[in-house]
Amino acid sequence: MSEHIVPVKVYLTIFLALMVGTVVTVWAAFFDFPWRLNTIIALTIASVKATLVVLYFMHVRYSARLVWVIVASALFWMGILFALTLSDYFTREWLPL
Amino acid sequence: MTESSVAIDHATSHPALQHHFENMEQQREAGTIGMWVFLVTEIMFFGGMFLAYTLYRSYYPAAFAAASNHLDITLGAINTAVLIVSSFTMALAVYGTQVGRTRMQNICLFLTLVLGLTFLGIKAVEYRSKYEDRLIPGRLIPGREFGPQVAEANDTDPHKLHLRDGASVRQVEMFYWIYFAMTGMHALHMVIGAGLLTVILILSLRGRFSPEYHSPVEISGLYWHFVDIVWIFLFPLLYLLGRHVH
Fold first, then answer.
1. Which chain A residue's Cα is nearest to B47?
2. Taking the model in full, what pTM does it have?
3. What residues of B are in contact with residue A26 (Cβ under 8 Å)?
4. Which of A3, A46, B21, B219 could covalently link to B35 via disulfide, CB atoms 3.0 to 4.6 Å apart?
5. Domains of chain B and CATH, by start
6. Domain regions of chain A by residue span
7. Element (H or E) spanning B37, and its range?
8. For B13-55, what is each residue's pLDDT tens digit?
């Protein structure tokens, strides 16, 4: 069987990292950082957590390249959705929303 | 490969091998890829709602902060922990099937299901408190229109809305439309996931899975982890956005 079996220790490490990330994101939420840093910090922590889940819990790190391509294409398409839609709305200052 | 040798291969192959696959490994990979393609459509589906959130949050930051602060951060954080643990137990269940440890596999599948139902129970408690504070948007509940009480300057009643910086009740209602749409759709996915897990658990208890054949468990795991990831983003965006403003 060529299927890669991820050891329990790896799962445990990722799980602990996810819990730590949750604690940090809640704790950081109560501090008033300058500019938009609060949002950036929250989204960065969430992205790191999501990446860990995708790579290890969902085995993408050990999967065929085709799976990597499919995951990357999802992010790419969502990127198009956000980029094109928001660039429309955010250049509409002359219209009341 | 001649037709007869393929036929012989299939005659001696695993009973779960479908006729259009050459071997179990190919079948397993195809199943995984199929589930991932479905998850891509789900990412786009939730992506649209995240886009709506992004847009209206950028237009009504004060109202969104005020509305978010009205959510119960403790319950939200507990729910986040519940889902992360459930993802861990799901990964362990898949591990159990890979190494043939059926007791571990069954216990972990059961725990994942219980944790998922716990999440839904806590969500129900949250929705109930929103109902009581008249924060269900529009006329979703006939006869109980959106109409929260707005707190005066020094009122610290937690059941009232505490507006600031030009936020209006209409803008807060927009937050709650998005909140219920997103968490509601997420909860629906949890219900589907719970149903899926129930079926998988029953099949597992009947001895259907083995190290040679367990792709239904793996694929259900992919779905479950995806629902967890959606919540990992929902929690900070809905519950934490205004906490630093207080």
1. A78
2. 0.92
3. 73, 77, 240
4. B219
5. 40-239 (1.20.120.80)
6. 1-63, 64-97
7. helix B24-59
8. 788 899 999 998 899 999 999 999 999 999 999 999 999 999 9
